[in-house]
Structures are given as structure tokens and as C-alpha cells.
Design brief:
Elements (H helix, E strand, L loop, with lengths): L12 H13 L4 E11 L5 E7 L6 E7 H6 L8 E10 L6 E10 L2 H17 L18 E5 L4 H13 L5 E5 L7 H13 L6 E6 L4 H4 L5 H9 L4 E5 L7 H5 L2 E2 L3 H8 L3 H34 L2 H4 L3 H42 L1 H6 L4 E3 L5 E2 L10 E6 L2 E6 L10
Parallel strand pairs: 3-5, 6-7, 6-8, 8-9, 9-10
Antiparallel strand pairs: 1-2, 1-4, 2-3, 4-5, 11-12, 11-13, 13-14
């Protein structure tokens, strides 16, 4: 309803803004479709995106909470979406604002959002961790291949593997590589090849395609079968940057089937060249070592001690003779010194010996009880005493004792 006003009777601005706010907010929340042409993520809890009508030059700015934006999945500029928005007018500024309360991608964007949510859930379970990746065998005994019958992917894998390693053997299983039955058939052959002990690696190959064509390779059941397989699995699905979940859980992602052939078997010519190079290096190393050992042996043989083994013995014999001569002289000298010392001591002993005194004319008188007589009062007249001389002894009879001073 129009407001009555005139230059003389103007209405307060607050009343007009409040009226506009009431008119706008009567619309309530409504679902609209459009295309995201700008996305401005902020560090806070509210973000801004610009939505444009798909068939008219009409665009509005939306405020979107973090929870709503995260729930929508990966959004990029140009994606088609449907948004549940509620228009409102701010009293302070009179600015018209659109609050986004729900946001959902449509078309390919919806598929990408669903795929991203699945990837996040599988990643949270650790199925994409690099530690789970199993290394491929250097030369597989048998290669399992799951692909469409008569497809270019099958031909690329078989031809390029045979070109690189002619002796490679395959176990090929054909399955639909798109459509509703794709994930079930691929999973069936995956279980069969994984249970075959002669199969060392399994390749799942197909050509590129649209997002819809590649959706079976993001099937959760198939992805979990690949994660649980005991045989290394190679994902060889030619596609653009939007990779299916199979690429992330496989032990190796090949960009194309041809790339998979290059990754699963070595090139015979290259390996033969490497083997020939290794033989040359080994031969050179052995030759160099033998030459070094021969030179060292020649150096040892050229030494005097080896050319004349007894040459050093002669000089040692001379040294031994000299040592023996010095030893003999030392023994003789020491013996002479000892003999002189013994003679000197013997002379001293003989000089102090009673026998030497007897030889000078003295005698030793001994009574019958073998007591030595040193005084005259020790002998009675007529007593028999023994006189020991230098050459024997005499039995004497004592006469009367002479007076002191008489002979």
C-alpha cells in the first residue's frame, strides 16, 4: 500500500525501510536455480558466492554459512546449483541480502559432490594411505586383466606388454566397463583373479569417458574389494582430472592403459642392455682387481727377503755369534771374579784356623773329659792328658807342677 507523503509531510526513513523489510520478508525462503559465477571463501563462519540466472543477465550475492558450503561438496565456478535462499533487508543500511540455507549441485556437479563425499569417508577410514600400497613385482608370473572385450584398452595393454616383454602371460577377463552392471562384473572377476595364486598383478583398464561413464569405478563395494585384495591392483582408466575412487585405493594409478603396460613389466631390450652394461662393469672391476693384486704380488716378490730368503739369516747368525762371544767373555770374567773372591775368603779362613796355629809349633792340651786345658791348675800330677799337634796327638802324663816363674 502506497505511503502518503509530500515535501511538507515526508515519512521517516525508518518507516519506509521497515515497510520494505516487511514486504520482502513476506516472501520467505524459496528454492532457486542458477550458476555459480564467483565464490569467495572467508576465514570466518560466513562465505560469499555470486549466483547468476542461467538464461538472463540477473545475478545476486548470497551469504552462505560454512556448514552449508561444506555439505554441498566441492564447488567450482561455472557449476549449476539449486539454492534455498531467504531475502532480507538490513534495517541499519537498507541493504537487500540473500541468506543461503541449503545448496545442492545439480547435473555433473551433483555427481562430483557425491563422489567427493565418498572419497572423504573412505579416506577417513585410511583406505587411501600410501602405507597400504603394495609394490608391484619386478616380473609378474601371470598378469590379470579386466577390461571390455575387443576394446582399445585391451589392445593397448596386450600389445604394449608383448612389445616390452614377449614372454608375459595373461589371464584376461571381459566385463562391461560402464553402466549399472559394470561394478558388479568387475568386482566378480577381481575376486576370481585375486584368488588365483599364479596371478601376481591385476590391471583394470578402460578408455576415457564422461563423469557419468566413470561412476561405476567409484562404486563403494568395488572400491572396498580393491582395498581388500591381496594381489596388487593397477587402475588404468584413461580420464581427465576428476579421478574415480578406484584410482585412489589402487596400489598403482596408470594414466592410460598404455602407461599401465609400461609400469607392470620391464622392457626386455632395456634390461638386456642393462645386463650387458653390468657384465662390462663386472669384467672391468675384476680385471682392475686382478691387475692390482698382480702388481702387489710383484712388489712383494721384488723385496730382498723374498728374492734371498736366507740372506737375512747370515746377518742374524753374525749377530748371534757376537752375542755368544760377549756372553762367554762375561761368564769367564764373572767366574774369575768369583774364584778370586773364594781364594781370598779361603786364605782368611785358613789364617784364623787352629790348624795353622798348630803348624807354627803350638799344641792343644785336652783332658780325659775332652775339656781344653788352658791353666796349670786344671791338671793334677800323674794325670793323663792328650796333646794335639799339627800332624797328630800324644798321650802325656803330667809331672809335678813347677813353681811360678820356673821352667
Amino acid at each position: 500500500m502506497a505511503q502518503d507523503s509530500s515535501p511538507d509531510d515526508p515519512r521517516p526513513l525508518r518507516e519506509i525501510v521497515a515497510a520494505v523489510k516487511g514486504w520482502v520478508e513476506r516472501l520467505g525462503a524459496v528454492w532457486v536455480s542458477g550458476q555459480v559465477i564467483a565464490l569467495n571463501r572467508r576465514s570466518g563462519a560466513t562465505h560469499f558466492l555470486t549466483l547468476r540466472d542461467s538464461s538472463a543477465e540477473v545475478s545476486v550475492s548470497l551469504t552462505c554459512p560454512t556448514a552449508v558450503l561444506d555439505a554441498a561438496g566441492p564447488l567450482r565456478e561455472g557449476m549449476a546449483v539449486v539454492a534455498w535462499i531467504k531475502p532480507t533487508v538490513w534495517m541499519g543500511s537498507g541493504r537487500l541480502s540473500f541468506d543461503c540455507r541449503d545448496l545442492r549441485p545439480v547435473g555433473p556437479g551433483r555427481l562430483l559432490a557425491q563422489l567427493e563425499q565418498l572419497k572423504r569417508r573412505l579416506q577417513a577410514e585410511g583406505l587411501f594411505d600410501p602405507e597400504r600400497k603394495r609394490p608391484l613385482p619386478f616380473l609378474p608370473q601371470r598378469i590379470g586383466l579386466i577390461t571390455a572385450q575387443g576394446s582399445a584398452a585391451e589392445r593397448d595393454v596386450l600389445v604394449n606388454v608383448a612389445r616390452r616383454w614377449p614372454g608375459a602371460r595373461f589371464e584376461v577377463r571381459h566385463a562391461l566397463m560402464q553402466g549399472p552392471s559394470c561394478a558388479r562384473q568387475v568386482g566378480h572377476w577381481l575376486r576370481q583373479l585375486d584368488s588365483d595364486p599364479t596371478v601376481d598383478v591385476i590391471v583394470i583398464a578402460r578408455g576415457g569417458g564422461s563423469i557419468e561413464d566413470l561412476l561405476p569405478f567409484s562404486d563403494e563395494t568395488l572400491v572396498r574389494l580393491v582395498a581388500a585384495a591381496t594381489t596388487p591392483v593397477v587402475s588404468a582408466i584413461g580420464h581427465e582430472s576428476d579421478s574415480p575412487a578406484l584410482d585412489l585405493v589402487a596400489d598403482l594409478r596408470a594414466s592410460t592403459p598404455t602407461d599401465a603396460a609400461k609400469r607392470i613389466v620391464p622392457e626386455a631390450a632395456q634390461e638386456l642392455a642393462g645386463l650387458a652394461g653390468a657384465r662390462r662393469r663386472l669384467r672391468l672391476a675384476l680385471t682392475t682387481r686382478l691387475e692390482a693384486e698382480a702388481a702387489a704380488l710383484a712388489g712383494l716378490r721384488s723385496r730382498p727377503v723374498l728374492r734371498h730368503p736366507l740372506g737375512g739369516h747370515a746377518s742374524l747368525a753374525v749377530q748371534l755369534d757376537q752375542v755368544l762371544a760377549r756372553l762367554r767373555r762375561a761368564v769367564v770374567q764373572r767366574t774369575d771374579q768369583a774364584r778370586a773372591e773364594v781364594d781370598h775368603l779361603l786364605a782368611q779362613i785358613q789364617a784364623l784356623s787352629p790348624q795353622a796355629t798348630l803348624r807354627r809349633g803350638y799344641a792343644i792340651l785336652v783332658s780325659a773329659d775332652q775339656g781344653t786345658i788352658t791353666r796349670t791348675d786344671q791338671v793334677r800330677p800323674g794325670q793323663v792328658v792328650t796333646a794335639h799337634l799339627s800332624d797328630g796327638s800324644l798321650e802325656l802324663v803330667a809331672a809335678a807342677r813347677a813353681s811360678e816363674g820356673q821352667p
